[in-house]
Design goal:
By secondary structure, this protein is α+β, with helices and mostly antiparallel strands. The protein contains two helices and 14 strands; from the N terminus they run H-E-E-E-E-E-E-E-E-E-E-E-E-E-H-E.
């Protein structure tokens, strides 16, 4: 076995000085970029899934005032699940509906210019931002509502005679944070695609497209409504 080369004291001191210098530089880099390094290692990871759809009374108003009045009508709520699969909590989370498209005769989809791009509503809340979603946790977001056709006329916000949809058919109503007087969030039976963005203060937005196959039919049984009344899928 060959003998290891002898390193004199001056060389050893030089190597030690270099190691100290490199260590000092590394510590300085870590000190300057520690926040970015921490965010790269510890970060949320948001995803969007179709949530549990429920049949529940909807509180509404017969007049143009507060859309949560004193009247109760039968309705179905269709929801999304926003989950955090990362290792750090997502802060100030929002779900933004940026564009609605309608299927054309040739099978393509075209943007509906009258659709008001705005935030969707968190379930059981009227806030645009949800404070935080911890790692491994999730939160429901309302994407749309369908009111029973025979009760539609009782609510100002969930009926639109201009669409000329009979009282035996349903309207598709998107659960936007704000509802314009034009009622441009209500739609007749057809196939639509909604582009949504899930974002937080400490993560880049995640985009998804949800397809709605709105038959216009109302069913009292939840299983029939979710299989034949309105079909949803993420594409």
């Amino acid at each position: 076995m060959p003998a290891l080369p002898h390193i004199d004291n001056d060389t050893q001191k030089l190597i030690a000085d270099w190691l100290v210098a490199i260590g000092t530089i590394l510590l300085a880099i870590i000190a300057v970029f520690q926040d970015k390094i921490r965010l790269w290692i510890q970060r949320p990871k948001l995803s969007l899934l179709l949530g549990a759809h429920v049949k529940s009374p909807l509180r509404c108003s017969p007049t143009y005032s507060d859309d949560e009045g004193s009247i109760m009508v039968s309705a179905y709520f269709f929801r999304l699940i926003i989950s955090n699969g990362g290792n750090f909590r997502a802060e100030e989370v929002e779900v933004f509906a940026s564009e609605l498209q309608q299927e054309q005769a040739d099978g393509t989809f075209r943007k509906i210019s009258s659709f008001p791009a705005t935030n969707l509503r968190w379930a059981y809340s009227r806030e645009a931002f949800f404070k935080a979603i911890s790692p491994g946790m999730q939160r429901h977001c309302d994407v749309c509502v369908i009111v029973k056709p025979s009760e539609r006329s009782r609510s100002f916000y969930w009926d639109n005679p201009d669409l000329k949809v009979g009282q035996d058919a349903t309207l598709l109503g998107f659960q936007l944070l704000g509802k314009p007087f034009s009622k441009s969030y209500l739609f007749a039976p057809w196939k639509y695609r909604l582009l949504v963005h899930v974002a937080a203060a400490n993560i880049k937005p995640v985009a998804a497209t949800i397809e709605f196959n709105h038959s216009g039919k109302w069913f009292e049984q939840e299983s029939e409504m979710f299989s034949q009344g309105l079909g949803l899928r993420i594409i």
